Amino acid sequence: MRGYAQDKEEYLKRLRRVEGQVRGLARMVENDEYCIDVLTQVSAVTKGLQAVSLGLLDEHLKHCVAEAVSEGGEDAEAKIQEASDAIARLVRS
After folding, report:
1. CA dist., res. 42 & res. 25, Å (int)
2. GO molecular-function annotation terms (predicted)?
3. CA-to-CA distance for 78 and 61, rounded, in angstroms?
4. Residue 10: what pLDDT?
């Protein structure tokens, strides 16, 4: 079972909201809306995705990484590195 399983519906709800915002962005561009208004919506979409990312990362650390560390061995090192790499990707984005 994945660490986020208990909050899966909440993540799906957030992602559907982001999906709707992205469709709205496309309509705004198609309709030649004012640049600042489009950028404001891009910012909202970005924040929505960041919230999902941070939530998933938190769940991953609490469940997957913590479980691997408690078991020890190579899997623990791999999970820690995997989490570190994910954090680096999020920071760069």
Report:
1. 7
2. DNA-binding transcription repressor activity; metal ion binding; transcription cis-regulatory region binding
3. 13
4. 94
Q: Which tokens belong to 88?
A: 């680096």
Q: Which pLDDT does position 1 carry in this prediction?
A: 61
Encode pLDDT of 3-61 as tens digits: 777 889 999 999 999 999 999 999 999 999 999 999 999 999 999 999 999 999 999 99
- CA 69 centroid distance within chain: 23
Domain boundaries, the chain: 5-92
DSSP-assigned states of every residue in the chain: --TTGGGHHHHHHHHHHHHHHHHHHHHHHHTT--HHHHHHHHHHHHHHHHHHHHHHHHHIIIIIIHHHHHH-SHHHHHHHHHHHHHHHHHHH-
Within its chain, how far is the Cα of 76 from the centroid? 23
Three-class DSSP category at 93: coil
CB distance 51 to 14 below 8 Å: yes
Q: Over the Cα atoms of the chain, what is R_g? A: 17
